[in-house]
């Protein structure tokens, strides 16, 4: 198989990259190891997309905004529970919508397809080796975009990377889950009267005061209501997680599932409306917040965050706070963690942008990255890992790849002013 652009990974970054590339005329293939597209919004079961807006200011435009509008057209979210800042995800609807969007834009796609290796020399990639039910095969392309989250393709091609904190530890993982038999009206009435928030802060505080079960390192229990009678939860931590190790992932999945009865005990006892709720489903895979950060031509850092940095080659903008979950329980300091999330929060209208060079792995001539594995330090990664900004970096990478294949140049040689003009024309927010 031979393509102009190959995109590895079908989460928000990969979907946006593939659609953007195909729209600009490049013959594009998207490969995904799971059974569906969507990444953490589907296979991870995450309850809600993070902010696409800063109150009335649009943060994420382009393909991400198109998807959001399509979801809103026929959503089932009760009017009283609708929150366009944190938009609750109906994962089944999202799966079908993403299928339609990639197909309608002429993207070829292979699900259940794993990367097993690469071929190339001197930093130039020729093909990727894959395996699926049809067997082993190679796919050639002119440009390769790594949207795997873990940076798998880039590392196979020889890219350098950073990982975790100074001791090689990454943020805890979470297995999200859904409940049914939930009295939505009763909960919304309680929330309105009590001032309860989307993290169930009041319910958690009551449980802690009672000395009842709540993981003592947790201060939040995120909830998303996507239809009457059901809700999704981002609740619970698995510590000492090793997202690049099969044994470590196996342990994490089993440990997270074993905790679900205890989490349900808390929900039934302390969340009004959930007294008779049942566990409907857990995410097909545990949610990973952090793994590799590819070393790129440029790198965004905490200093860039603090000074609201703008770059001449900025290709996507965002403003989510620095949201670091502890890697081990001993590092959980509730006041410190909450303080960082709160004190790093921008004022209305402020944002940073991400330079194009963060998408370009150092030493590789025709490989790009998008999503949470872009070039950043650990603190900045805790902001750029959110799904909305992954749509932004993905669309930038896909657009750049298509321009490069049309002109016969490498991503490092692309005129970034031209790229920025094209992103703006396609309603992206770049700074």
In short:
The protein has helices at 12-23, 62-73, 91-104, 152-156, 184-194, 201-210, 246-270, 302-306, 334-343, 378-384, 387-407, 416-425, and strands at residues 2-8, 28-31, 48-49, 53-54, 57-58, 87-88, 108-110, 114-121, 124-132, 135-146, 161-163, 177-180, 222-227, 230-234, 278-282, 292-294, 314-318, 352-355, 367-369.
Could you characterize the architecture of this molecule?
- With 431 residues, this protein is α+β, with helices and mostly antiparallel strands.
- 33% of the residues lie in helices and 21% in strands.
- The protein has twelve helices and 19 strands.
- The chain has helices spanning 12-23, 62-73, 91-104, 152-156, 184-194, 201-210, 246-270, 302-306, 334-343, 378-384, 387-407, 416-425, and strands at 2-8, 28-31, 48-49, 53-54, 57-58, 87-88, 108-110, 114-121, 124-132, 135-146, 161-163, 177-180, 222-227, 230-234, 278-282, 292-294, 314-318, 352-355, 367-369.
- Strands 1, 2, 7, 8, 9, 10 and 19 form a seven-stranded mixed sheet that branches.
- Strand 4 (53-54) and strand 5 form a beta hairpin.
- Helix 1 runs parallel beside helix 11 and helix 11 packs across helix 12.
- The longest helix has 25 residues, at 246-270.
- The chain is globular, with a radius of gyration of 21 Å.
- The mean pLDDT is 95.
